[in-house]
Design goal:
The strands form 4 sheets. Strands 5, 6, 9, 10, 11, 14, 15, 16, 17 and 18 form a 10-stranded mixed beta sheet that branches. The chain has a 4-stranded antiparallel beta sheet with strand order 1-4-3-2, covered by helices on one side. The protein has a two-stranded antiparallel sheet with strand order 7-8. It contains 9 helices and 18 strands. Helix 6 crosses helix 7.
Amino acid sequence: MSKISNQGGNVGQIDAMRGAQGVERANVGSVNGMRVEVGEGARQPSRAGETLNAVKNFFKDLRSGFHDAFATLKDKVRTAYQDFQGWRAAGGGGAGAAQQAQAPANVQAVQAPPVQTFDEKRTALLDVLPSGVAINDQGVVSGSHVAHAFPNDPAIGPQAGKTIKDVLENSGRAQLAPTDPKTGQPASLPVIGGIPVGGQAVKDLYRLDITIGSGTGAYKSSQDATTNGERNKSVVANLRNFTGSDQATTVLTSVINQQFSRVFTDSWSKADGSRSVCQIEQGKTGPVDYRAADDSVSSITPGGIGTAPINITLTPNNDFKIEINWDMYYSAAGRGFNKTEFPGMDGSVMKAGGHVEFVVDGAAARAGRLDLTVTQPATITFEGKMTP
């Protein structure tokens, strides 16, 4: 019988012996990374003997022509192994060969990883998603995650463990009391259209989809023909008309900015309270595939926070209600270099519709203070389907 395995090394050793049946057995530990074993069994295939002779001659020829000798040996070994496989398949060697045939082949190969079952993929996917998400037996993703507070994870930063109210309020108050980054001393608020605004307003107002008021007279920044600086002026002017107060306008601009995106993206937690971190797609790398519950697949170009509609209305108590909706699309567990594709999604994304509502106290705002109440916590509703 012949066995070949790749076990490393260049030249092993030859150990020849005469068996009880008069069959010569030779073992070669390794030859240039290949193991050759000839012997065992009542009868050898015809070329097995040639292989043994070639092995012996190989070492004799090393001094005169290593490369030629090795090429000859390699061809002989390959041929002998192929013959042996056919001989064994035909039942050669009697009981001994049959016994050997049941043993694992001594040829090392890379084993493919076992194919995960649907249940394994579903479990792996649920393990990385926040609490409240469900996946049924057909792979349909549903359910909502409700975030009242941020997970207590130091990686989040100062928001770790804080309530949504605290995060929104602290962020807005910081906007109203900017400091010079070089000196740490208090700095003046930026001004748009003659009215002081929150520190982030100049960079963000013109990017956002803001609706002020309701009904036919509502102002919609997305339909404003002006751009950038001029749109900033338009948004501030319409806010001033709506609030009737410079101070209230300043206060509202402190919470109408891209900072609120963290309420949706960093507030996810799992059932055990640990943080759930997933990779959001924002269309920067092109469209992505989204599989709906009915198995239809559509090409989606996800929008960033600028596409999230922000509605500002007046309550019966003359407070200011702010409602934000954002359709997000998530593609992987983790972020950046640490992300891994969602199990069972085969590259398609998962939809996560975010919604939050809070009310800014009107009397406090008109006095230049920010006090708010979260009336509907950050709620993220998941949709999509695993690949069948």
